[in-house]
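Z., the sequence and structure:
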Amino acid sequence: MTTRRRLLAAAAGVAGAAFAPAVVGAARPRVAVVGAGFGGATCARYLNAYDPDLHVTLIDPATTYVTCPMSNRVVAGQLPPEAIAFPLDHVADEHVAARAVAVDAGQRLVITGEGAVPYDRAVLAPGIELVHDAIDGAPGGFLHAWRGDAQAVALRDAIRGMRPGGVFAIAVPDNPYRCPPGPYERASLAAEYLRERNPRAKVLILDAKDAFTKQPLFEEAWRARYPGMIEWVPRRDSGTVVAVRDGVFITDFDEHAVDVGNLVPPQRAAGIVRDFDEGRGWCSVDPMTFESTVAAGVHIVGDAIEATPMPKSAFAANNQAKACAAAVVALLRDRPPPAPFMMNTCYSLAASDYGFSVSGVYDVAEGAIRARTAGQSPLGAEPGVREREARHAGDWYRAITRDAFGVGDPERGRRVVFERERGDCAICHELPGLDASSHGNVGPSLTDVGARLDARTIRRRIVDPHADNPESVMPAYGRSSGLHRVAEGFRGRSVLGRADIDDATAYLMGLKGSG
């Protein structure tokens, strides 16, 4: 489905690179995953978890992913930017740090700026593209801060430097767009900051919609926490920003001079999937497998797809990615794909100690995603309830980033490595703090393993050391199939789960030797 012009343009930039054709049915089926966000990273990790015999290649120019969730807390100065940045060094078997520019579905190649990556199946999770052209004069010097990148810090600094009594304005696009409640959370947390440090300031929301998600909950919070400070202007009252110029947001009938402007433009699927969106801006997929309806062997998940009633959220992408991974493994192994069962939970903060949420459960019926149940936090809840939900938001973020990016806990990892019922690594390896009589020497010392090996290699050797050395006598802690002489009660189970392996990797990465 890649157009000849786009394919040739991409190929021209990688002259001399090897374009090996994919070999379906090879010993290790190859899956290329484009995009390292919540959809792509989750899918890459679960592909390997569901089938360790796959070779999964992650393609993304970044080596660290900065999340959109919790970026509003960076904007409000509540978190440092490094708190929402996660390394990608143990997400997949291989990481090609290059930008994917096209997909040749016929030849089964992902084309990057540095070469071509062959695949048996591809998963695209490229996210969104901001359509500044939809607004005359955009971006016009205004920040969007909608990708969790350096713009979040720049917007934070602009709010901090705003004159006393100034106006911070957010222009919000019409649906669909990434993170539907995000603009209103940003307005809330900015108001929390300004209430203490610039109490005469105003927060103005210019909206291209007449209603928004969690609206009653946000408005209840605004009345309680920021009376008279936040003004929401809907589309019916000329809230749609159609043009910008220096320091001014222009709607159909009004002009708003602002001191700090946050322009969130309309959005569409990222450019690499343009050949698969049939001109609609978002891609259609088979909801049973997330395979593109126009490109065989290409699966698409996350913000780039039309998945109504699921929103464009991190948790939705994470759940779609798991369903997609299960389908890809089944299709590669000539098995029927399992029926997807997905969830979405979205927390929002109206203040650092004031949270609420919506949730939904989804399955597939008659060829479409169907909402089975939905719920949201109640109106009129006691302050303690809102405080607990704010804490739950933090817990949710830690859980989903661990699930997607595999960042483990070193202290828990130490227990995994040392405990006899789990890793029991000392039976074969030297470990810190043990005398010579307390550890084996069949394998190499682990006291400096973090200085010798990278996280990806350590993790791979825990999961299945035979992938690197077929003669290894070390157990495959992460495999549940292809094993021999397994007691009946343990068949179909791996010795360690994904979280245990993440934790053990984090602990071993910290062992650098030198005492």
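The first strand starts at residue 30 and ends at 34. Confidence is low (pLDDT under 50) at residues 1-26.

Let me know what you think.
H.
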